[in-house]
Description:
Blueprint: H1 9-19, H2 27-32, E1 38-42, E2 45-48, E3 53-56, H3 59-62, H4 71-83, H5 96-108, E4 113-119, H6 122-139, E5 147-151, H7 160-165, H8 169-172, E6 182-185, H9 190-193, H10 199-217, E7 222-227, H11 243-254, E8 257-261, H12 275-279, E9 285-288, E10 300-305, H13 306-315, H14 329-344, H15 347-353, H16 355-365, E11 372-378, E12 381-386, H17 401-412, E13 415-416, E14 418-420, E15 423-426, H18 434-454
Helix pairs in contact: 4-14, 5-14, 6-13, 10-11, 16-18, 17-18
Amino acid sequence: xxxxxxxxxxxxxxxxxxxxLHPFTDLTRLNAGASRIITRAEGVYLxxxxxxxxxxxxxxxxxxxxxxGRSELAVAAAEQMQQLPYYNSFFNTATxxxxxxxxxxxEVSAPQxxxxxxxxxxxxxNDTIVRMVRRFWDLEGQPGRxxxxxxxxxxxxxxxxxxxxxxxxxxxxxxxxxxxxxxxIMQPYWYELGGDLSPGEFGLRAAAxxxxxxxxxxxxxxxxxxxxxxxxxxxxxIPPASYWPAVQAICKxxxxxxxxxxxxxxxxxTGRWFGSDTFGIEPDLMAVAKxxxxxxxxxxxxxxxxxxxxxxxxKGGEFAHGYTYSGHPVCxxxxxxxxxxxxxxxxxxxxxxxxxxxxxxxxxxxxEHPLVGEARSVGMIGALELVxxxxxxxxxxxxxxxxxxxxxxxxxxxxxxxxxxxxMLFSPSLVMDKPQIDEMISLTRLSLDQAAATKGIA
Length: 458
Ligand code: PXG
């Protein structure tokens, strides 16, 4: 049963101000204002407590890949809750849903992946990866390999290790991060950082920073490199085509483990099962979460290649790591049902060959708008760079106000988008159909027009 309280919006908001601390929110400003209360959802639409309908251009938080209201997932949860709501996978024990999910993940991922380590979230998956890669090198007789290289403006979660791997300075400032032995290199963000280089040249330049950092630290001191195939929270930064092959070659050359953070890119977002498939990356480890269960229940995993898993299994004894909810049977049952649903509806093929290309084409049309400096997209993920005079890097000062303005107009127009700085981000449910894509694009255009008019830009 859902909440049965018949509260007014004002009553919910009062409860919020009194008792609820929001993640990643300006708490001072929210406490002086009011939160939005979302009460129900269906397909790609949400409704708030005043019964306003909102088109969700963001799939919740990059996660509701199969859309809201999927009874298959609700039934899977209810049945599993009744049969076995919880048991752990410590003490030589397992449950059928976790085993089935591990098998499904091995089937949909690249051939080197046959093992999963389950977590409750993407952050926990990345924390697991930090410990696992160090453990691996210890077992391989190279205990000096403790350093992990990540990128500026990456997002890898909010736990101590996740936030440390991430390259968000404003997060590092709160809480004395990063933890030791984590290093950050340049991100492959051509639009802002590419200067006069072509995208191809810049991709190689950004990859070369990895080699420089490995040489600076000493190759026998580097455990792993981690990157999102496409940086999500950082602004849907799609690397030039030259980037990942070069990174892959550098990791191979120095035997540095390659970790793909697939928390956003996984499960169809880029038109393949994983972003690594789209970009030709052959990782040793992948972090997954979000779309694995379409966000219906919290679950994440580390997909572990045979090379790493066999070392843990054959040489390792106990890996002293795990969570109460590792392989939670209800979460696993829902994730397994979600993957089966993705198969049944042919959603990957649809994103690759039908709705994805349509979304990309429609988003590209917004590239003509006076506010838009660049429109970029892959599969069902995209971004618009808002700039002052359409020339590259003519960023607004201060950065961020235009993005917030446009996002607020979108919301008032009934469309949920996310802004990072002045970059508008799109990550709709993969089930969004063409008329709904049209609706998203026209509401975006209207919001861009309103934002431009407010700032006197024609
Ligand atoms: N890796 C990536 C690539 C992510 O996007 C995480 C790890 C962490 O997952 P959990 O499940 O621990 O949140 C994420 C999460 C935003 C935003 O503002 C993005 C995320 C989380 C919160 C906000 O875009 N991504």
